[in-house]
Amino acid sequence: MSIGKNIQFYRIKIGYTQKELSEKLGIATGTIQQYELDKREPKFEMIQRIAEKLETSPYNLYGIDEDITDFNFSKACDWLDEAGYTVEPQDEHDSESGVYQICSFDEGTICRLDAQDIIALVEDCRKQAEADTDEQTVKYIKLAIKNQK
C-alpha cells in the first residue's frame, strides 16, 4: 500500500476523522486529504508526527515490515562491527530519533546515517563483494564509510 493509504488505514483504525487528525497535527484537513489520495507526500518529519498521533511507527506508514528492518539493521551493525566501526544513537539520551553515528576508535564520529541508509550501505557493499570473501565485504564497507565523510 502507498503512504497515503497507510495513513488512512491507521487513522481509521485509531478512530480519527481527517479533521481530528489534522487538528492534532496543526495542519489543514485538506493536507490530510491530499496525503491520503496520494496527491501529496509528507516529508519525513511529518511522517514521524503522523505516526506518533496514530500510535504506530513511521515504518508502518511507509509499508516497511519493522521486524525485517530491525533484523537487517542488526545484521548491518554486525558487518560494521566486523569492519571496526560502532553504531550509536546520535543522541545518547534519545535512541528513537532514528539517526545513528558511525564511529571508529581512531577517528571518533565519522558520519551520521539513519537505519535505512545504514542497511542500504551494507547491502550495497555485500553486493559488490558477492563473489568475493567476507574480507572483501569489510574492505568495501570501510571504503563506503570513508566516502560518507
Kindly describe this structure:
GO terms for molecular function: DNA binding. This is Helix-turn-helix protein. Pfam families: HTH_3. InterPro entries: Cro/C1-type_HTH, Lambda_DNA-bd_dom_sf. Keywords: DNA-binding. The protein has 149 residues and is an alpha+beta fold. It folds into 2 domains: 3-62, 434 Repressor (Amino-terminal Domain) (Orthogonal Bundle), CATH 1.10.260; 66-147, no CATH class. 59% of the residues lie in helices and 12% in strands. It contains 8 helices and 3 strands, in the order ααααααβββαα. The chain has helices at residues 3-14, 18-25, 29-36, 44-53, 58-62, 66-82, 115-128, 134-147; strands spanning 85-89, 99-104, 108-114. A 3-stranded antiparallel sheet has the order 1-2-3. A hairpin with a 3-residue loop joins strand 2 (99-104) and strand 3. Helix 2 packs across helix 3 (29-36), helix 6 crosses helix 7 (115-128) and helix 7 packs across helix 8. It is elongated.
- Computed Rg: 19 Å
H-E order = HHHHHHEEEHH
Mass-distribution shape: elongated
Unreliable stretches, pLDDT < 50, 5 or more residues? none
Q: Structural class given helices, strands, pairing?
A: alpha+beta
Give me the side-by-side strand order of the main sheet.
1-2-3
- Summarize the main sheet: 3 strands, antiparallel
Helix content: 55-70%
Q: Give the termini distance in whole angstroms.
A: 35 Å
**Beta-strand residue fraction:** 5-15%
Query: Count of DSSP helices?
Result: 8
